[in-house]
């Protein structure tokens, strides 16, 4: 029999300690403990395990939201029979997340619709599930953020935020050319990440065209130098998945 005063104090203590799973499931667990004749140790262990599991789930949900993915994409949903330039097993191995530990960068190059963003998001989600912090941002949006934070004097804050992640996904380098100032800030970010963070970068332009993207060959070379030193490069080929089946139908409507 539990006396009500002790019970109330326990609930207060659990609240103060932020053990919310235990607090909310205490009654059921006590009943279960009685029914199954569990020892004190088993009860305490069981509750703690559940609390930890629950916290992990919540942390993953929070990080998935904070990552800013435009959609949720998974490796399971990727059709490796359609995109044969990447090996499924290689991606499955990468999904284990060691590349983040070794501060390796992953680069997806290829024409539109070949799965660059899909695979970037899928690897990002896998990394979050393994406890890493990931941030997804299209390069054009990052450039806008550079300019707004320059105007408000918050550029340092922006860098601090970006560098608080284990992995930054820079999506779509090269869709639009960058001016010198933007290229410079992007270079600064990539330099700061060099051997400290991991980047996933996608681009529809081959490295030889990066001079045009940054309107400056020297900056492009410096960026590539940092980016490629520890990297895995994937060259995606073939048709756009968005157009799959549409051309034969005489469509091509989007
Ligand atoms: P990219 O970034 O290379 O332009 P995306 O990754 O955005 O291309 O792919 C375009 C759309 O097609 C997305 O909805 C994506 O999920 C889907 N897609 C691309 N390749 C595949 C694939 N091999 N299997 C399944 N879906 C794919
Ligand atoms: Mg894309």
Key terms:
elongated, binds adenosine-5'-diphosphate, Rossmann fold, binds magnesium ion
CATH topology of the largest domain: Rossmann fold
The CATH superfamily of the largest domain is identified as: P-loop containing nucleotide triphosphate hydrolases
Share of residues in helices: 40-55%
Which radius of gyration do the C-alpha atoms yield? 24 Å
The fraction of residues in strands falls at 5-15%
Low-confidence stretches: none
The succession of helices and strands, N to C, reads: HHHHHEHEHHEHEHHE
* CATH-level-2 architecture of the largest domain: 3-Layer(aba) Sandwich
Helix-strand makeup class: alpha/beta
Task: Report the end-to-end length measured between terminal Cα atoms.
Answer: 68 Å
The average pLDDT value, as a whole number, equals 93
Q: Mind telling me the CATH class of the largest domain?
A: Alpha Beta
Looking across the biggest beta sheet, what order are the strands in? Answer: 2-3-4-1-5
Q: Based on the structure, what is the oligomeric state of the protein chains?
A: single chain
How would you characterize this protein structure?
- The protein has 254 residues and is of the alpha/beta class.
- The chain has two domains: 4-66, no CATH class; 88-244, 3-Layer(aba) Sandwich (Rossmann fold).
- 54% of the residues lie in helices and 11% in strands.
- The protein has eleven helices and five strands, in the order αααααβαβααβαβααβ.
- The protein has helices at 4-16, 20-36, 40-67, 88-95, 98-101, 116-129, 139-151, 155-162, 180-193, 210-213, 217-229, and strands at residues 105-109, 134-138, 167-173, 198-203, 231-235.
- It has a five-stranded parallel beta sheet.
- Helix 3 (40-67) packs antiparallel against helix 6.
- The termini are far apart.
- The model has no long low-confidence stretch (mean pLDDT 93).
- Bound molecules: adenosine-5'-diphosphate and magnesium ion.
- Magnesium ion is lined by residues 116-117, 171-172, 202.
């Amino acid at each position: 029999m539990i006396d009500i005063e002790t019970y109330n104090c326990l609930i207060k203590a659990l609240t103060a300690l932020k053990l919310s799973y235990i607090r909310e499931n205490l009654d059921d667990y006590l009943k279960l403990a009685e029914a199954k004749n569990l020892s004190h140790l088993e009860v305490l262990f069981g509750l703690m395990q559940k609390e930890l599991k629950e916290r992990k789930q919540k942390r993953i949900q929070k990080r998935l939201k904070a990552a800013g993915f435009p959609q949720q994409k998974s490796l399971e949903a990727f059709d490796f029979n359609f995109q044969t330039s990447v090996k499924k097993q290689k991606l499955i191995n990468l999904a284990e997340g060691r590349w983040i530990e070794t501060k390796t960068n992953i680069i997806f190059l290829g024409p539109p619709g070949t799965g660059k963003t899909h695979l970037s998001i899928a690897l990002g989600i896998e990394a979050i599930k393994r406890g890493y912090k990931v941030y997804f941002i299209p390069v054009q949006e990052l450039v806008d953020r550079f300019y707004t934070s320059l105007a408000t004097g918050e550029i340092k804050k922006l860098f601090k935020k970006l560098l608080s992640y284990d992995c930054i996904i820079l999506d779509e380098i090269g869709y639009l050319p960058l001016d010198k100032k933007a290229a410079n800030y992007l270079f600064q970010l990539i330099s700061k990440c060099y051997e400290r963070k991991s980047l996933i970068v996608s681009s529809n332009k081959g490295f030889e065209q990066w001079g045009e993207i940054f309107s400056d060959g020297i900056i492009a070379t410096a960026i590539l130098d940092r980016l490629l030193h520890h990297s895995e490069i994937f060259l995606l080929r073939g048709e756009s998945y968005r157009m799959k089946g549409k051309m034969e139908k005489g469509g091509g409507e989007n």
